[in-house]
Each structure stands twice: as structure tokens, then as C-alpha cells.
Amino acid sequence: MSTFKYGDDKIEAREIMIAIPSMAIAIGILTFPRHLSDVTEFSDGWVSIILSGVIAMLFAWAIAKLASKYPNQSFLSYASLLVSKPVAIVLTLLFSIQGIALTAFEVRAISDISHQYLFDKTPFEVVGLCFLLVVVYAVSGSRAGVFRLNTLFFPIIFCTTVILIFFAIGYMEVDNLLPVFKTDMSGYLEGTMQSALSYTGIGILFFYISLVKNPKKTPRMAAFGMGLVVITYVIIYLTCVAVYGPATEAIRFPLVELAKEIEVPGGFFERLESVFFVIWIMAIFTTTMMAFDVTVMALNSIFPKTNKMKIIFLLSPLIYFVSTIPSNYLELGIFAELVSYSGWGLSGTVIILLWIMHKIKGGRKNEK
Amino acid sequence: MRNKVLKMIGWPLFLFFLAGCWDAVELEERGFLSGIAVDLAEEQGENTTFELTQQFVVPAGLGSTTEAGGGKAFRNLSQTGESIFEINTKIARQANRMAGVEHLEVVIISSDVAEKEGIFADIMDVFIREQNMRRGTFLVVSEGKAKELLNVEPEQVKIPALYISELTESKQVTSTTEPTRIGNIHESLLSKRSFIIPDLSVFSDNSIDYEGLGVFRGETSQMVGTLTGNEAKGLNYIVGQNQEGSVPAKVEDKLATFDIANGDSTFKLTNRDKDNLTFQVTIDIGAIIVEYFGSLDPYKKENMEKFQKGLEEEIKRQAEAAIKQVKDDYQVDVFTFDDFLRTDHYELWEEIKEDWDAGENYFAKSDIEIDVNVTIIEPGNSFQVENEGETE
């Protein structure tokens, strides 16, 4: 297979800003209003989204800051510098396992949703396989191409979401949002935990910063990109609650139902959800693509002599196999939580560990 | 060379997989459902047996924009059974096309079904749960058999279900309400809030009458009665929605008809004792004089006040009639006081919400005071048509 070669395999700091929302916005965007409104009262969930969002922004900033102190070095090389090579290899392997799980989950989830709403006769295994094949195709090309695809898709995803909310205005009832601040402390905390699950994949920053030509600006860009996600989530959450009120917690995919419910005035378009489906599949595609790509990148850094294509072709069947493990929607939910929590746990532990080590020994050596 | 031949044969083979037509249903094989009617079956079994009528669109009857179609544009099929979805599969044995609910316009529930305790929510379940159902589908209640409504053939609309959905959307009369969408009902059912649904009945072979509003008790999801005419108008004045329409009122014993251009209502809680809650409802109305049988000159301030007073009294009378029927007879809160208490007096609401319009029924014990403010916006094109008394 011949692929187009870009001039260089470097990216701009701005592309990191776009990669963050492309990565974070995934399946979670379709389901989080349900989980969140389950544990908070009325519209109070936005507080939780912002709380968890600020934490996510802090993490993104911290990771980018650390990684940009070692410009153009791969995760493996600066981690080996800080915590010794064997530990760094273990961490990289953990990241690849997490990446495989995340890719498999996204593949499975998208095929389940398409099964529910689009193709009720096509077995989900077939949908998943097709989706995975496209992801494989995207990953096997140039890495800069992945980022350019993000840059291409992101405005489309963002604009369509704005349009969706615009059309939903006619269905909103302000009474559904009121009264405010009636949730107790534990509700907010639980909501924060719940909404944190939707900020997936901060871990990619550990790896991708090494591609940035001039990483000085990346911490700010990464935090800003996360901020975009927070704003999008808050707006979507408020829209869902304003439209559905108490029914938000009973609807499986609130955002999909929102697209199904709205009609463009004039009766010209009735079933808009097919359009929005394309867009959400794009959003989920970018997430899956990057999760896969980071996994390949991580493994490639451990085995630098192995061909990238070999790794991809070895991983794909594994991912496909993992994606078929959950047998029903309950197990899929557990899978989702496992993937999200492990992502947070891994990124969180690693960044804290690395920062401490950086302060202890790396600080003097690298910063002049 | 061999490689090239392999490619030439191999690549086109992939074309077969490209189409991916597992779920494909040709347009010609699709049957579009436009309306569903739910009735009680004549013969009842162990459980409640329903009769379900589905209205399919017949595209040939519709014609195109340039060419009128011939014959009927719809086809009604009925079956009986205990579960809605099961009846649907029974109907599939009669239908030659695959039924699709994607363009379902309206669901009609007969009042016989709606008045049975606990049945309504069960029927709603399939319309909310099934994957292809849209939450925007309209819901109406029918006096008499629901399937009769699907047989009414108006002249300008080819499909009865479409006619019904347009009818519920048109806003000219004060005694109607916004179309009720299934999504709204889901929300009300979940929070056990009482609600209203448009109530229709067959008027003649080619028209349907928007009779009024069916009133449902949230606690049991059961229809407790209907509001028609003045009571329905009074309800709208109090809720503060859909007040536009005409009101005839007496101004110094002469009839004057007003067209209400805008209106709003605000609630205030004046007594917080939960056994004796008192609500102060202020209704603000802006009206235009459209017809008047007397000769008062509305350009004079004292006369304008007479017009205002006449309309205020009439609206107050209608609102009080609605209160009497809703609060004293039906004892269910469809005035949205529950929303008001929840948003503005949350602590009190938490305390009484379980017994709001069920159990203790604090709603029925409450007092509602009506206060109407009318502004006459315009006196009409020509404000004096006949002259009485001295000529100038």
C-alpha cells in the first residue's frame, strides 16, 4: 500500500489544541447527560461538568508542560531519564494496553449504537469490522495525516453540534432548569466522577507532544482545547435538561433523541438524526483513530526496529477480539467505566510520578 | 502481468461488499405509518384487549405536485391483542409492505382506554421505548372510537392523520392547547405530573372537531374528564399559554368581541400554610376590539375603561369556571402550579410534592385568586360604526 508522504512528520502546537477535543469527545457525549442527571437535581449537573473539566484541564496542562520540557523526545526516552528504563517500558506497555482497550471499546460502542438506530439487521460484528478497517486505514498512513484529519473534522463536528442546539431552542422549557443549586455535596461529587468519565484520553499528550515542532505553547493550547470540551459539554447538558426535564435520566442516548426530536421549522426536514449520526460517527472515529495511533506509537518506541505496519496488523485482530467480549449493554457499560477509570488512573499516576521525579533529578539537568 | 490480471479481477470483487445492503429496504417496499389509533376491543379477554388501527400512506393516491392522485391516499388496518407491539406484528400479516414508524404523525387514544386506571402509561411505553419512535409524535384523545377519526376524509388533505396533526397545530381558538408530543407525556409520567391532551371528536364525514382538552391525573395516569369551551379558555388564561383568540364580552349590556393579541400570567404564593395555600394569579391581556354592537367611543378614556372592565370581568368569569371544574371536580393540577412551586418555593414543594394532587391533595384545598389586567391596544380600523343619540 503506498501512502502520501508529507514533507515532515511534525505538527504545530495548534494541532494539539484540536487533537484534545477530537480525542475527548467520543461515545461519552451521547450518554453523559443521562448519568449526570441521575445523580444531580434539575440543571445542577453543569457544576459537576465544570469541576471535572477544570481537573481535566489541569491534567492536560501538567502533562503538556512536562512533555514540552523534553522537546522532540519520545515518552519512552524522557520517562527512562526520569524513572529508569525498565519502569518506563512498563509504563509505555500499560499505555498501549489502555489504548487497545479504548480502541476496542469505541469500536464496540459505535457498532452497538448503529445497531440500535441505523442497521437493525446487520450484525454488530460486521459494523464493527468495517469501522475498524477504516480506522486501520487511517492509522497506517502518515501520523501528520491523522492530525490533519482532526483539523478537517473538528469544525464540522463543532458546527453541527451548535446547529443542533440552535434547532433545539424551540423545544426548551426554562422551568425544567429550575430551581438551581438544590443538589447536595455528595451529588455534586458523584456527578463530577460521572462526568470525568467523558473526558477520555488525556494520555495521548504524553506521546504526541514529541511531534510538536516548537512545544513552548503546547501547555496553554492543551488546556484551551480541554476548555472547548468543557464548554461543549455544559451547553449540551443544559440543552438536554431544558428539553427533557425529568426524562433526561431515563433516555438511553439523550443527544441522539434530541436529534430525533427536533424538526426544522417548515416541515421540510423531519428526520435529522441521520445527518447528526454521520457527524457523531466522525467524532468517534477521530477518537478511535488517535487511541489506536498512540498505541502503535507507544509499541513502536519499545520495538523501534519493527515495521509500523506489522504492529498495526498484529494489533487489529486483538482489538477486534476485545471489542466482541462484552455480551450485552450492561457489560458494555462496565467496560466503558473500566476503560475510562483506568485511563484517568494511569495518566494521573504517571504524571504525578514523573513530575516528582522531574523535580528531584531532572529539574537541574534540563532547565538551565 | 499476472499481478495486473489478478488486480483487474480482484478489485471489482470488492464492489459487492461496498453496497453493504444488509438492512436495505427498497422504497417501494416500505409502508409509511401516518397514524395509529388505540381502542378497547369489543371482546375483552383476561387482560385488557386493545384494538389497534394503523393508517398506511398510499403514495399513488397522493399524486405529485403537478398531477393529482386518484383514489384514497390511505389504508387503515386493524387487529386486536393485548400488547401494542404484538398487534403490530399481527397487522404485518395483513400488510404487504414493511411498516415504518419514522413518519408517524399522530397517535390517537380513545377516551375509553384513557379513562381506565393504569392503562394509559402502559400504552405509552411502546411509543417511548421502541427505537424508531420519535418523541415528537403528537398525541390526542378521542371522544368515541379512535379509529373513526382515521376515517374522516377532508377535502384538502389526503391523509386523515395529517389532517389531525395540522388541526392540533393550528392556533386560532383560545380553548385549544399546544400539540402534545409523546416526549412531553414521558416527562409528565415520570414526575407524576397531571397533564392535558387535546380531545377530538368526529364532527361530520369530512371534519373533526377540536372539542377541548382531556385532563389526566398524573398519579394514576388516567383521564379524569375534559375541559371544553369556557373552562378550557379559562385554563389557558391561568397557565398563560395560547391565550390568543376571540372573546365576546358585555360592555354596558352591549356585546363587544375582543381579539386577544398577547397575554401572560404570573403566579404568586400569598399564603404558605400548606393546608391552606393561596395563589394569586395575575393575568395580563392585551386586546383589540374587533366587533361591537354599541356606540361608545373608545377614544374617550372613560369609555376605554368600560371596555377594559367588560373584558376583565369576562376573563375572570372564565378563569373561575375553569378553577371550579379543575380544582373542585377533577382535583388535579393542570394549571402548572406544581411547576411554579418547584421553581420558586422548592422547600415547600419538597414537603408537599407527594400529596400535591393525590393523597392529601393540597391542591384541592388551596385557594386561587384571579386578578385580570386588560390593556386595549387598538380600537379597530374605524372605531365607530353607528351613532346613537344626538348627531354632531
Record the SSE blueprint.
The complex is a heterodimer of chains A (368) and B (392).
Chain A: H1 13-24, H2 28-39, H3 45-68, H4 75-83, H5 85-117, H6 124-139, H7 143-168, H8 185-196, H9 204-208, H10 218-244, H11 254-261, H12 273-302, H13 308-323, H14 329-366
Helix pairs in contact in A: 1-7, 1-10, 1-12, 2-8, 2-10, 3-8, 3-10, 3-14, 4-5, 4-14, 5-6, 5-12, 5-13, 5-14, 6-12, 6-13, 7-10, 7-12, 12-13
Chain B: H1 2-18, E1 30-40, E2 50-57, H2 59-62, E3 74-81, H3 84-94, E4 98-100, E5 106-110, H4 111-115, H5 119-129, E6 138-142, H6 146-149, H7 160-169, E7 180-181, H8 182-190, E8 195-204, E9 207-217, E10 222-228, H9 229-239, E11 245-251, E12 254-271, E13 278-292, H10 301-330, H11 337-344, H12 346-352, H13 362-365, E14 367-378
Parallel strand pairs in B: 1-4, 1-5, 5-6, 6-8, 13-14
Antiparallel strand pairs in B: 1-2, 2-3, 6-7, 8-9, 9-10, 11-12, 12-13
Helix pairs in contact in B: 5-8, 9-10, 11-12
The overall pLDDT of chain A, averaged over residues, is: 86
The description of the largest β-sheet of chain A is: none
Q: Cα-atom Rg of chain B, whole angstroms? A: 27 Å
User: Helix and strand string of chain A, N-terminal first?
Assistant: HHHHHHHHHHHHHH
- How far apart, in Å, are the first and last alpha carbons of chain A? 46 Å
* Biggest pleated sheet of chain B: 10 strands, mixed
Number of strands of chain A: 0
Total count of helical runs of at least 4 residues of chain B: 13
Number of helices of chain A: 14
Q: What's the architecture of chain A, going by CATH?
A: Up-down Bundle
Cα shape of chain B: globular
Task: Enumerate the spans of chain A where pLDDT stays under 50 for 5 or more consecutive residues.
Answer: none
Q: Percentage of helical residues of chain B?
A: 25-40%
Determine the structural class of chain B based on helices, strands and strand pairing. alpha/beta
Q: List low-confidence stretches of chain B.
A: none
* Beta-strand fraction estimate of chain B: 25-35%
Proportion of residues in helical segments of chain A: over 70%
Would you state the CATH class of chain A?
Answer: Mainly Alpha
